[in-house]
C-alpha cells in the first residue's frame, strides 16, 4: 500500500503560462481555491472534489459536471513525473503542449495506477468565466428531458454543464439534502452557461425556448451565486 496524501504540495503556480506543478496528493478543490482569487481554476472537478486527489483523478481520468465544455482530466494534464514498477523515474509530456513522439502522458491518464505511481504533475489552469447562467428545467418524462438535450446540442449550443436526474435520483437527493427539487417530476435537467456576459442572455433564452418546446412544466433560474450552487 502506498499512501500519496502527504505529497500534497503545490510546487509552482505559473499564471502567465496558465499552469501549475503539483504533487499528486493535492486535493482537487484545494488547487482551485489557491488560484481562484487570481481569476483561475482547475477545470475537471468531480462531484467528490472536496476529497479526491489530483493523483486519483489522473488514475481515473475524472470528469465532472463541466466536462461537456471543458473536457476531462486528460485535457488538463500537460505532463507528469512517474515512478515505474522497476523504480525508474521518468517524465511524460511537459510544459509545452503537443510534444513530439508517443503520447505516453495520455496512456498514463486513466490507467488506474497500473503502470506506475504519479509523483508530480503539470496541470493546466483555466480562466474563470466572466458570467454564469444556471437553470433547471422540470419535465414530466425522461424522454422529454433527453429530447431537449439532443435539441440543445443540435442547435450548436455547448453549455458548461448539462446534467439530467431521473425521478429515482431526484427523490434520493431530496431525501438527503432537502433542496426543494420536485419529487413528482419524471426528470430535471440542469443547464449552465458560462463565458463572456455579452450574448449570454440570448443563448439562455434560446435554451428556455428549447426546454419549453419539449414540454418543460417549469424553468427555475439561479438569481445569485447561492442559488447557483443549490441548483
Ligand atoms: C461522491 C463521489 C462523486 C464523484 N463524482 C464524480 C464525477 O462527477 N465525475 C467523475 O468523473 N468521477 C466522479 N467520481 C469518481 C472520482 O473521479 C474518483 O473517485 C477520484 O478521481 C479518485 O480520486 P481519489 O483521490 O479518491 O483516488 P483513490 O480512490 O485513492 O484512488 C483511485 C485510483 O487511483 C490510483 N491512484 C491514486 N493516486 C495515484 C498516483 N499518485 N499515481 C498512480 N495512481 C494513483 C489508486 O491506486 C486507485 O487505483 C466521484 C466519486 C465519488 C466518491
Walk me through this protein's architecture.
The chain has 231 residues and is of the alpha+beta class. The chain folds into two domains: 10-127, 2-Layer Sandwich (Uridine Diphospho-n-acetylenolpyruvylglucosamine Reductase, domain 3); 131-230, 2-Layer Sandwich (Alpha-Beta Plaits), CATH 3.30.70.3450. It has eight helices and eleven strands. Strands 1-2-6-4-5 form a five-stranded antiparallel β-sheet, with helices on one face. The protein is elongated and about 60 Å long. The site of flavin-adenine dinucleotide has 19 residues, from helix 2 and strand 6. Residues 1-128 form the FAD-binding PCMH-type domain. This is FAD-binding PCMH-type domain-containing protein. Pfam families: FAD-oxidase_C, FAD_binding_4. Keywords: FAD, Flavoprotein.
Amino acid at each position: 500500500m502506498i499512501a500519496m496524501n502527504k505529497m500534497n504540495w503545490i510546487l509552482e503556480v505559473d499564471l502567465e503560462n496558465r499552469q501549475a506543478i503539483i504533487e499528486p496528493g493535492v486535493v482537487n478543490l484545494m488547487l482551485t481555491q489557491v488560484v481562484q482569487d487570481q481569476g483561475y481554476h482547475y477545470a475537471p472537478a468531480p462531484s467528490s472534489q472536496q476529497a479526491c486527489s489530483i493523483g486519483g483523478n489522473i488514475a481515473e481520468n475524472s470528469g465532472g459536471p463541466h466536462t461537456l465544455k471543458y473536457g476531462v482530466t486528460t485535457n488538463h494534464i500537460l505532463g507528469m513525473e512517474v515512478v515505474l514498477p522497476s523504480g525508474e523515474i521518468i517524465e511524460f509530456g511537459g510544459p509545452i503542449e503537443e510534444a513530439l513522439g508517443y503520447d505516453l502522458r495520455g496512456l498514463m491518464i486513466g490507467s488506474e495506477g497500473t503502470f506506475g505511481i504519479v509523483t508530480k504533475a503539470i496541470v493546466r489552469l483555466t480562466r474563470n468565466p466572466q458570467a454564469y447562467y444556471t437553470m433547471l428545467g422540470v419535465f414530466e418524462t425522461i424522454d422529454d428531458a433527453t429530447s431537449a438535450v439532443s435539441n440543445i446540442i443540435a442547435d450548436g449550443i455547448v453549455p458548461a454543464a448539462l446534467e439530467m436526474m431521473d425521478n429515482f435520483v431526484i427523490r434520493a437527493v431530496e431525501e438527503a439534502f432537502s433542496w426543494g427539487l420536485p419529487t413528482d417530476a419524471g426528470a430535471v435537467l440542469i443547464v449552465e452557461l458560462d463565458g463572456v456576459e455579452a450574448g449570454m442572455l440570448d443563448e439562455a433564452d434560446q435554451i428556455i425556448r428549447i426546454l419549453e418546446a419539449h414540454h418543460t412544466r417549469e424553468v427555475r433560474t439561479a438569481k445569485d451565486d447561492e442559488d447557483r450552487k443549490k441548483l
